[in-house]
Structures are given as C-alpha cells and as structure tokens.
Amino acid sequence: MEAGEETGAEPLPLPLRYGRHLARDRRRSAHTVRAYQATAERLLAFLRGHLGGPVGEAELKALSATDLRAFLAHRRGEGLGNASAARELSAVRGFLAWVGGEGASLPRVKGPRVKKGVPRPISPDEAIALAEDVSEDAAEPWIAARDWAVLLLLYGAGLRIGEALGLTGAVLPLGEAIAVTGKRAKTRMVPLLPPVRDAIDAYVRLNPWGTARDAELFRGAKGGPLAAGVVRRSVRAARVRLGLGDRTTPHALRHSFATHLLGRGADLRALQELLGHASLSSTQVYTAVDAAHLLDVYRNAHPRA
C-alpha cells in the first residue's frame, strides 16, 4: 500500500486511497472502483461499532476471522443474498490485502455457497452479481464494459451467446429493439431494456477498436472477434469465486430470462418469439422449470411443507 498520500496536512481516508489505487495502478473500471470503495467504507463503518473505536491500518491488519464473519452476518441481516455476500467478501479480501501489503496474512473465512441440486433459474441477484464479478475481474476498463454488456444481453434480452457475439456495428445506434439472427438464419426483433442499452453504449464509448457496420460489435483483447470460450471461462471463474453451482453458465442466463418472464405472466407464444424457438414445444420446457421453482418456494415457506 502507498504510505501517507495526503491532501494538505490530512491523510486521505483509506477507502479513497484504495479507490485511487484500483483506478491508477490496477486500471479498474469506474464501476469497479465505486463498488470496491463502497465495500471498504461499509467495512470501516461496521468495525467502528464492532470494535468500539477508530479503525486504522493497525486495526485492519489485526482483524480476525471472527471479525469478518461478524461483518458478513451484519450484511446478510441487511438482506444480502449468497452471491452478493460472496462478492462482498471478495472485495473485503482485496482491500485488506492492499492494506497489509505484500505477503499479508489474511483471516481465513469461507464464503457462502449456493445449494446444489435440481437445476434452478439463476436469481436476479445472482445474475447481476455474476455479471458484476466478471466485469470487475477484467484487465482493462473497456473489457470490463464489454463483459458487462455481453452478460446483460444474455440475461436482460435472452440472447444465446452466439447471437450476442454475432452482433455487428450495424445495430448502432441502438433503439428500443435490435434485430438478432438466430438458428437457421432466422431473424427476430428483441426489445432492449434501458440498462442493457446503457451497458452497450458504455462499451461502445470505451472500445478502442471502433464499431464498423460490417465488423463484430464485441472484440477480443487483441481486436479480433470475441470468442465464446473467453466468456465461458470468465463466467466459470466468477461462479467459483461466488460459490455458485456448476450449472451457472452463460446459457443459464438465457434460461433465467425466460423463466423470470414466464413467472411474471408472459404469454408462452410471445416468449417463443423472444427466444427465437422454432416450435412452441421448445418454449414449454420453461413451464416445468417455473413449476419447480414455485414448488421450491412453497417447500421453503409453507409451515407444513
């Protein structure tokens, strides 16, 4: 950690110094800097009450596993889900490693894990946590914006990964919907939610390779077309960090899109069109998934279940 960055005679608060380190030295995106700096601020605020006094570098270096478990329990009490709690713990570890410096010994705390078993849709909390974690692990701000945009297209628009990576600069400027070419070269119109449009626009602004109409919209680190394997590897690493199940894949985000729409009352025929299924039977599988989800809720909530 840098020693004693100062503004005038007063040292900058630790979370702010950490944020500057992430932006300047680690070249993290603005989104990542805000998220990790906010976690550091929450940790310090909790520890001031938990330890009963001011918290500085010495107190942070002396934290025990019990202290970190107390912080996680506090955050869980505020409604944090498993995936978000795992991300919070990961951010805390990064902050403490920076405070401790090279070779720092961190308290060993096991993160929360999501129960495995019968396949279930990824919850909205898990889907966003997954996309955020993949984005935050990116080496460059533009790659972080790219990964965030791609995963939001899968979860927020229900695209197959090949469909998302097959988009070209011809979809720009974005409107309320885009034309997507799916299986058997069938084209369909897919609505774009404002957060999805914003994510793509943010990526386009940062993309150093340009957006020619006849070139792939999403580029790899060296400027070529982004490969599906790169996205899958990033998701695989993120799900390990978050403690999510093996079935948490890029395609699972599309399944969750369909299941959540159906659970909110979407018409099966309309869902068929949105997903680009050739037959209704392909879409009807989501009715079974949704029924399984409802049964799971019933078993967990009903006093006689």
The largest beta-sheet arranges its strands as 1-2
DSSP, total strands: 4
The biggest beta sheet is recorded as: 2 strands, antiparallel
Which shape, going by the Cα principal axes?
Answer: elongated
Which residues sit in consecutive blocks of at least 5 with pLDDT less than 50? 114-119
Count, helices: 13
* Terminal-residue CA separation: 53 Å
Give the integer mean of the pLDDT values: 79
| Gyration radius, rounded | 22 Å
SS-based structural class?
mainly alpha
- The H-and-E topology, N to C, reads as EEHHHHHHHHEEHHHHH
Q: Could you tell me the strand content as a percent range?
A: under 5%
**Percent of residues in helical segments?**
55-70%
Topology, pairings included?
Elements (H helix, E strand, L loop, with lengths): L5 E2 L2 E2 L2 H11 L5 H22 L5 H5 L3 H13 L4 H19 L23 H13 L4 H17 L3 H5 L11 E5 L5 E5 L2 H13 L21 H15 L7 H14 L4 H8 L4 H22 L4
Helix pairs in contact: 1-2, 2-4, 2-5, 4-5, 5-6, 6-7, 6-10, 7-9, 7-11, 11-13, 12-13
Mind explaining what this structure looks like?
- The chain is mainly α.
- The chain is 58% helix and 5% strand.
- The chain has helices at residues 14-24, 30-51, 57-61, 65-77, 82-100, 124-136, 141-157, 161-165, 194-206, 228-242, 250-263, 268-275, 280-301, and strands at residues 6-7, 10-11, 177-181, 187-191.
- A hairpin with a 5-residue loop joins strand 3 (177-181) and strand 4 (187-191).
- Helix 7 (141-157) packs antiparallel against helix 9 (194-206).
- The protein is elongated.
- The termini are far apart.
